Amino acid sequence: MLRALRTPTLRNSSMRLMSTTAHPQPSIGRFTGKPDPNTGKFTVSFIEGDGIGPEISQAVKSIFKAADVPVQWETCDVTPLFINGLTTIPDKAVQSINKNLVALKGPLATPIGKGHRSLNLTLRKTFGLFANVRPAKSVAGFKTTYSDVDLVLIRENTEGEYSGIEHVVTPGVVQSIKLITRDASERVIRYAFEYARAIGRPRVVVVHKSTIQRLSDGLFVNVARELAKEYPDIIMEEQLLDNKVLNVVQNPASYTDAVSVCPNLYGDILSDLNSGLSAGSLGLTPSANIGNKISIFEAVHGSAPDIAGKNMANPTALLLSSCMMLNHMGLNQHADKIQDAVLSTIASSPENRTGDLGGSATTSSFTDAVISKL
Ligand SMILES: NC(=O)C1=CN([C@@H]2O[C@H](COP(=O)(O)OP(=O)(O)OC[C@H]3O[C@@H](n4cnc5c(N)ncnc54)[C@H](O)[C@@H]3O)[C@@H](O)[C@H]2O)C=CC1
Ligand SMILES: O=C(O)CCC(=O)C(=O)O
Prior knowledge:
Blueprint: E1 42-47, H1 53-66, E2 71-75, E3 81-83, E4 86-88, H2 91-100, E5 102-105, H3 119-126, E6 131-137, E7 150-156, E8 160-170, E9 173-179, H4 182-199, E10 203-208, H5 216-228, E11 235-240, H6 241-250, E12 258-262, H7 264-278, E13 286-290, E14 295-299, H8 316-328, H9 332-348, H10 363-372
Helix pairs in contact: 1-8, 1-10, 4-5, 6-7, 8-9, 9-10
The structure holds 1,4-dihydronicotinamide adenine dinucleotide (NAI) and 2-oxoglutaric acid (AKG).
């Protein structure tokens, strides 16, 4: 059963644009932070990140200020430290996030094949952020192959191919271990069922390759089968990864009623595919890293070194991530206001779109245009 889709066009862009974030929140991972009783504001940790990070972070700060969002930022330095051969983040940043229970994060670059381990993975591990929610939705005013994409993908976020357990067996032979545990699989799959229920989607699609990865993906699928019995109102479907890729490229609308859930690497790749299908740019796709107590919100894209420092980056993905964050914190009206201003700016004219969307706007002129629509 597919929900009817309305596809906004430029002709009717004054109608309420499609929301890319969902208000109802699953009971797992609920935000329990409180505003400062003196200022009435919530404190949010902010990791600005590398490359385009500071530019898109400035856009969020300016827009939050103009929209009068009751949030004060606590800037966190996550310059990596090496302790006992392991990559860690500074105590001050850990304390800030533990205290505030919520953070917004710009992209963090990972050196290839040397230096520190990915700080993105380190943050996810440090704070037990077990589910990575990545919605990808068509936006009005920018034409891509499909105009009706509305995909929700939940990616396991702490293990799988990202466990970082690799070694040289003998010169020329390396081994990398894909770790799948019952606990982590159960946490993320349960979250997917709860998320589907919360946003009113009747299907959970479990993506795997257990024909080949028999034990690891096999365990993931078995856990899903067990949990499905606790959710008789949700249909659980199993789909092989390659088949899922084909289906989503051929007919993304067939997943409009579903939440997909998968092991870590599959989710990383599938979510970029979803971004490409929905928006044709990584610059539009937000995400939430959810843990039991703490959650960190970030764009799906990386630090974009090719355009860093050029005032060219599209801040939309970080802005929509900040809207997911506001929904998570119960500040729904502020989320709606910012999201509507962002999406109507994109829909309004090519002059208001950044280069990745074929427009001529800079990061700062886009920010000003959004502020004028608040
Ligand atoms: N969650 C995170 O912090 C992530 C960090 N990374 C890191 O980012 C670095 C660069 O990775 P890449 O593979 O090049 O991926 P990337 O996402 O940074 O860039 C891929 C392409 O998309 C474009 N792009 C990305 N974000 C954009 C935006 N907001 N506006 C306009 N265009 C945008 C870039 O210009 C580039 O052409 C690496 O060090 C990687 O480790 C990569 C992915 C996620
Ligand atoms: O940490 C990185 O370098 C890349 C991480 C990434 O692609 C992601 O999981 O979002």
